[in-house]
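Lab notebook page, bench 4
Experiment: in silico fold of construct C2
Operator: M.H.
Input chain length: 333 residues
Purpose: comparison with the prior construct
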Amino acid sequence: MVYSSSSIRAFGSLLCRISNGVYLKPHHSCTLRSVFLLSGNFSYSSWYSSSDIKVLPLELQSSNSVRKIWTSSPLCMGRRSCKIAGRKTAQDLKKAKLYSKIGKEIVSAVKKGGPSPISNTALAALIEKVKELDIPKDIVDRNVKRASEKGQEAFIEKIYEVYGYGGVGIIIEVLTDKVNRSVAAVREVVKDNGGKMADPGSIMFKFQRARVANVKVTDVDRDQLLTIALDAGAEDIIEPSMDEYDTEADSSESRVYKVVSSAENYPVILSKLQEEGIKFKPDNGSELLPTTPIEYFGFGLQVDDEAMELNKELMSKLLELDDVDAVYTDQKY
């Protein structure tokens, strides 16, 4: 099919508006009467994918040049590169969720006890937590001010339980100032991604709430950590798994040992790790850990590779919601 140059320019402008690609103007040597052929290469090899994003090159051909317009930029080449990019995105999202949760807790504390940490013990405790977690001080200042704004309501904690693919259980922790908004958003994401809302208590019993200290695998010898933590009264040491596409070099930075402890013994664990010079990152109050992680076929449950990826996608979409602070699962990675 033959198009005039003006048609090509109009089409390129449209592509620029609806995609992340770049529209390239016709070469200056081409006159208004030049004729271009617009063709799309629809062979399998012309498509790249990252998650659900498809990329299609369209070629503009003239008598002296060939140009391509990408309807979307290829995000990564190869499974291993996607894993690395996905890990960094997950780490950034985790940090953003931590800042958001602390901010909402500060608003609630100020609403209940006022903006002065001297008279407001809950706010004083949060400020100490901010220092421990190495969170920027402006997070505190901004949310103390936010609490005094007209129309700002206190935040309420809600927990939702969901069945994922293969019988996997998912727990969603929400801190919201609009309960109806949060439950509607959660239900929509769960429905759109193949999950099912569960009755309260039907999944929570599979988890235990515990305090956790996270230690990077690069910061400590495994046997040394086991000896120190268990002698200090740790209940368990959860070791990270190695992804088949990871190498020791590019995965070690993000992999951590989880030192599990009761709330009563948690300060003792942290003190002992500090005493031994082991770097760690404390939790934000507590974490939910599965009592029996699902990783095999049995008891009517099956989590194959496809189900695992679908559950990861569901949890990722849930974490994108502003009201959601944390998502836990009994699926073992």
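Observations: Confidence is low (pLDDT under 50) at residues 19-75, 244-251. The first helix runs from residue 5 to 18.
Next step: discuss at group meeting.
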